C-alpha cells in the first residue's frame, strides 16, 4: 500500500521542474551556454561547416585566374633552316637584273625549339556547364551544416544536465557540511556537559574521552565536507568558464519537494532527440552519395575563355595579343568497374545508416524508461529516508531527555546522534538523487526548451 501511495503521489504532481527551477540556476544555465569552452568549439565547427557550404555553392560561378609564364632557354633541340642557300641565288639574279644591291645576302638560320626570353600572360575564365557532382556536393554540405547544428544542440543539452547536476552536488555538499556542523555542536555540548559532571564528581572520565574522540571524528568529516564543497565549486565554475574561486549563489532547490514531478514526461516522443535528427540527416547524405555515384556516365562539360599576350623579347603589340575560346568534356570510358563498386559501397553505407537509426530509436526509448524508473526509485528512497529521519529525530530527543534525567547513558546519546546524522545525510543525498534523476530524464527526453 505504501508503494502504491508513493506512485500515486508522484503521478499526481503536475508542476513542472523546468518552470519551477530557481532564477539563480536559470542564470547559471544561460552563463554556461554563453561561455562554455567546449560549446564555443562546437560553434566554431558549425561556422566552418557553413563556410564549406558557401564554397560548395560558389562552384556554380565562373572562376577567373591570371596565368603568367616566362621562360628563357639556350641550347636543346634545334632545326637548321637553309634559307640563305635557297634565297641568295634568287637575290643575286634580281640584283643583276636591277643593277642594284636592293636584295642583300642572308645567312642560313638555326631555330631552337626552346624559346628565348619568352612570356605568355593570360586571363582565363572557366565555368562549369554540366557537372552533376556540384549539385550533390552542395546538398551534402548543406546536410553537414544540419549535422553540426544538431551536434551543437546535443552538447547544449548535455551541458545543461551537467550544470544542473554540478549545481545540485554543490548545494548538497553545503547542506552536508551544515549537518556535520550541527553534529559538531551537539558533540561539543556533550563534552561540556560531561566535563561539568566530571568536575562535580558525578561523571566518568571515559565519557569525556569519548566526547573528545567524537569531536575529532566529526571534525575529520567536516574537513572532508569542505573538500567536497571546493571540488564541486571547481567543477561547476569550470563548466561555466569562470574563475575557479568565483562565488556560487546558494538556493533552496533541495527543499522544493512540491515541484518535483514526473507529469510532463508521461508521454515522450523520442523523435525530438537531436541524435535521431542527425541520423536522419546522415541517411539523406548517403542517399545523395548513391545518386551522385549513379550518374558517373553523365559527362562533365566546362567552358573557358582566354584573353592574353605571348611573344619573345617581352614584346606587347597587336601581333602578341590573342584570345581563345574552348570547351572541355570529361567522361569515363573504362575504369576497372570502380564506379559500379562505389555505388555498391554507398548502398551498404546507406543500409548501415538506416540500421544505426533503428538501433538508436530502441536505445533512446529504453534510456527514457530507465531514467523514468530511476526517478520513481529515487522518490521511494526519499520517502523512506524521511521516515528514517523522523524516527531518528524522535529517538534522539527521547534519549537526550533520558540522559538529562539520568535514565540513559552518554553512549546511548552518542548512538542516537549518530543515527540522526546518518538519517539526515541519507535524506539530503536522496534529494540530490531525485534532482539528478529528473535532470537525466529531462536530458533523455530532450524536453528542456533551449532559447536559440
From TrEMBL:
Assigned keywords, A-Z? Cell outer membrane, Coiled coil, Membrane, Signal, Transmembrane, Transmembrane beta strand, Transport
Q: What is its main location?
A: membrane
- Which parts form a coiled-coil structure per UniProt? 208-235, 341-370
Similarity remark: Belongs to the outer membrane factor (OMF) (TC 1.B.17) family.
Give one GO term, molecular function aspect.
efflux transmembrane transporter activity
Please name the Pfam families in this protein's record.
Answer: OEP (PF02321)
Q: Which residues form the signal peptide?
A: 1-20
What is the protein's given name? Outer membrane protein TolC
Q: Which organism is it from?
A: Sphingobacterium paludis
Q: Where in the cell is it found?
A: Cell outer membrane
Amino acid at each position: 500500500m505504501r508503494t502504491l501511495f508513493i506512485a500515486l503521489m508522484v503521478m499526481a504532481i503536475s508542476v513542472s521542474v523546468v518552470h519551477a527551477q530557481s532564477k539563480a540556476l536559470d542564470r547559471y544555465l544561460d552563463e554556461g551556454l554563453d561561455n562554455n569552452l567546449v560549446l564555443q568549439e562546437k560553434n566554431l565547427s558549425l561556422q566552418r561547416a557553413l563556410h564549406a557550404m558557401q564554397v560548395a555553392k560558389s562552384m556554380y560561378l565562373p572562376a577567373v585566374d591570371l596565368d603568367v609564364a616566362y621562360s628563357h632557354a639556350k641550347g636543346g633541340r634545334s632545326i637548321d633552316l637553309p634559307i640563305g642557300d635557297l634565297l641568295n641565288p634568287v637575290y643575286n639574279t634580281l640584283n643583276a637584273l636591277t643593277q642594284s644591291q636592293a636584295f642583300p645576302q642572308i645567312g642560313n638560320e638555326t631555330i631552337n625549339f626552346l624559346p628565348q626570353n619568352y612570356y605568355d600572360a593570360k586571363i582565363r575564365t572557366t565555368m562549369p556547364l554540366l557537372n552533376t557532382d556540384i549539385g550533390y556536393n552542395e546538398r551534402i554540405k548543406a546536410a553537414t551544416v544540419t549535422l553540426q547544428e544538431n551536434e551543437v544542440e546535443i552538447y547544449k543539452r548535455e551541458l545543461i544536465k551537467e550544470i544542473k547536476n554540478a549545481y545540485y552536488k554543490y548545494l548538497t555538499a553545503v547542506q552536508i557540511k551544515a549537518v556535520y556542523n550541527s553534529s559538531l555542536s551537539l558533540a561539543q555540548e556533550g563534552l561540556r556537559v560531561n566535563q561539568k559532571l566530571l568536575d562535580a564528581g558525578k561523571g566518568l572520565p571515559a565519557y569525556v574521552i569519548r566526547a573528545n574522540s567524537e569531536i575529532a571524528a566529526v571534525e575529520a568529516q567536516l574537513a572532508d565536507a569542505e573538500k567536497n564543497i571546493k571540488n564541486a565549486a571547481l567543477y561547476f565554475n569550470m563548466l561555466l568558464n569562470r574563475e575557479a574561486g568565483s562565488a556560487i549563489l546558494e538556493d533552496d532547490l533541495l527543499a522544493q519537494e512540491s515541484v518535483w514531478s514526473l507529469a510532463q514526461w508521461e508521454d515522450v516522443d523520442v523523435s525530438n532527440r537531436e541524435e535521431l535528427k542527425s541520423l536522419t540527416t546522415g541517411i539523406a547524405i548517403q542517399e545523395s552519395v548513391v545518386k551522385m555515384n549513379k550518374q558517373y556516365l553523365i559527362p562533365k562539360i566546362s567552358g573557358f575563355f582566354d584573353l592574353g599576350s605571348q611573344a619573345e623579347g617581352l614584346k606587347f603589340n597587336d601581333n602578341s595579343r590573342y584570345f581563345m575560346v574552348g570547351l572541355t568534356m570529361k567522361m569515363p570510358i573504362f575504369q576497372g568497374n570502380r564506379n559500379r563498386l562505389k555505388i555498391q559501397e554507398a548502398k551498404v553505407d546507406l543500409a548501415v545508416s538506416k540500421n544505426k537509426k533503428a538501433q538508436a530509436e530502441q536505445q533512446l526509448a529504453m534510456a527514457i524508461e530507465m531514467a523514468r524508473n530511476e526517478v520513481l526509485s529515487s522518490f521511494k528512497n526519499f520517502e523512506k529516508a524521511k521516515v528514517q529521519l523522523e524516527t531518528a529525530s524522535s529517538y534522539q530527543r527521547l534519549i537526550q531527555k533520558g540522559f538529562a534525567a539520568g535514565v540513559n547513558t552518554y553512549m546511548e546519546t552518542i548512538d542516537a546522534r549518530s543515527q540522526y546524522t546518518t538519517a539526515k545525510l541519507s535524506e539530503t543525498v536522496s534529494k540530490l538523487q531525485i534532482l539528478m534523476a529528473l535532470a537525466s530524464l529531462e536530458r533523455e527526453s530532450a524536453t528542456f526548451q533551449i532559447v536559440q
